[in-house]
Amino acid sequence: MWSRSPGPSSEGERWVIVGPNGAGKTTLLQVASSYLFPSSGTAAILGEKLGAVDVFELRPRIGLAGAAMFDKLPRRQSVLETVLTAAYGMTAHWREKYEQADESRALLLLDLLGMAEYTTAPSARSPRASASAP
Questions:
Q1: DSSP character for 44?
Q2: pLDDT value of residue 9
Q3: Cα torsion for 64, 70, 71, 72, to the nearest 10°?
C-alpha cells in the first residue's frame, strides 16, 4: 500500500484507483473508509488516526459507494432505512436515533432518484438487487 498519501484532495477533485485483481484496491478503500484496520503500520483518515478515533464519529464524513457495500446491508432492512443509515456512515441500524428531518431528507432523495415506490421494500429487493438476481 502507500507509504504516504499523494497529498490532500481539493473540493471537487476525483481520484481513480486502478490495478489488477488482487492488487489491494478494495482493501485500500476499506481502510480509507474505516471499515478495515491496517494489519501493520498506521492509517490516518481526514487527519484522524485509526485506532485513536471513534470510527462511528468519523464515518459520516466519508463518502463511499459501490457494489461491495451492497453485501454489508442487512437483507431485511428497507430501502428507506438504508438511506437513513448511510447519512450517518452506517450500513445498518445500531443505536442511532433519527429525527423527522432525517426521514424527510431521505424520502426526498429517494423521490429525486425515482425510488419513492421502493421506500418500504427490503434493500435486497431494490431494482439493483433484482437486476443482479439469477
A1: E
A2: 67
A3: 50
The dihedral through the CA atoms of 1, 49, 37, 81 has a sign that is negative
- Whether 121 shows a pLDDT value over 80: the answer reads yes
21's CB contacts (< 8 A; 6+ apart) are: none
For residues 67-78, give the mean pLDDT: 81
How far is it, in rounded angstroms, from Cα 134 to Cα 126?
14
pTM of the full structure: 0.59
All three cell numbers of 101: 428531518
SS3 86: helix
Strand pairing of 48-49 and 44-45?
A: antiparallel
Query: Residues with Cβ < 8 Å from 96, sequence gap 6 or more?
Result: 85, 88, 90
CA dihedral over 13, 104, 59, 123, signed as positive or negative = negative
Longest C-alpha distance within the chain, in Å?
A: 46
